[in-house]
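Sync notes, pocket subgroup
Present: LS, DG
LS reminded everyone that the earlier model was apo-only. Rerun requested with pyridoxal-5'-phosphate included. Inputs:
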Amino acid sequence: MEHLPHAARAATQVVALGRPERAPGAAVNVPVTFTSTFVAGGPTIYARTSNPTWEALEEVLGALEEGPGMALAFASGMGALAAVVGLVPAGGTVVAPRHVYNGVTGLLDELAATGALRVRRVDPEDVESVVAACEGASLLLLESPSNPMMELTDVPAVMRGLRTRYGAERPVVAFDNTFATPLGQQPLRWGVDLVVHSATKYLAGHSDVLLGAVVAHPERADLRERVHTYRTLHGAIPGPMEAWLVLRGIRTLHVRLERASASAEVLVARLEEHPAVQHVRYPGFGAMVSIEVDGGADAADAVCDATRLWMHSTSLGGVESQLERRRRHVLEVDTVPENLIRLSVGVEDVEDLWADLDQALRHGVRRSLDGR
Ligand SMILES: *Cc1c(COP(=O)(O)O)cnc(C)c1O
């Protein structure tokens, strides 16, 4: 693989890392390596352990998250999160925010129901209660901004609190950085042990692939090793084509995010003034926004159905703008408002996005008023 001058910035890393060595006539992109096994005598024996296409992607992800050489690609974001939860010993305790990606809620509930682990739910904005809930816990899962409530956690303060109160006995801290991406924040710098991604979202960026990743802190090679072992033994591996697609998507991560974030700011300012919108949740950066609309769940559903440009679909982080009412999912916790619509702002022209959203909001609220 190519190596960059140490000081290369993120926008350069996404373009330049994970490429073959420069040599006259060499390809500029890594190939998709379709193989299940390797000729004996080399570093890799079998393709459930590693694959050269994953390694190129892992090089980029590790560098972006400030964990060079510490990234591992997984079959999906949930595959990566399951590997992290797999670090918890039998009967151990996991501390998690009350609002978190609903697949995580489902996974933890499932494992708690079988007695595999215990779960404590916390308000992620209340640092003291997060720290206090970690008494005897094996794992603290964080997600900030949280999905879909956009709550923020003061992670450096949580890490200070954990160190002061528990010292070396503190739980492993894992952080889901899917919403912000490493261009928005780098949680390993705050001292968390593991960063998790659903690369399905912004990193891949085109709604055409599922893939996940875990990046360990440079001083936690032990955790990287255990997560790697989990991946190998549980077979939670990505396909080489999927890894290649994510690597291809990452090349434009910075320009996609710049555009989407700038448009999100414009839309947030207008949504705050919109007569059909009660409340806007926006963390102040990134391209994810949640709104609560007049007229309850029915109106929110009508808004989602009335868009013609915005895609009414779950998921986020694609070039196309997407929206959905989160409570339509049975796994979504009931403290998420029924009328909350989550918006993932894409890279289309912002005036087109606004025109479509505005007409859908007016339509949805009119329909719910007519129904009264
Ligand atoms: C989508 C998502 C996941 C799950 O990732 P998949 O790739 O769909 O398995 C986890 N965390 C967050 C924040 C997500 O948005």
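DG: Residues 76-78, 101, 103, 143, 147, 176, 178-179, 198, 200-201, 210, 212 surround pyridoxal-5'-phosphate (CB under 6 Å).
LS: The mean pLDDT is 96.
Action: DG to write up.
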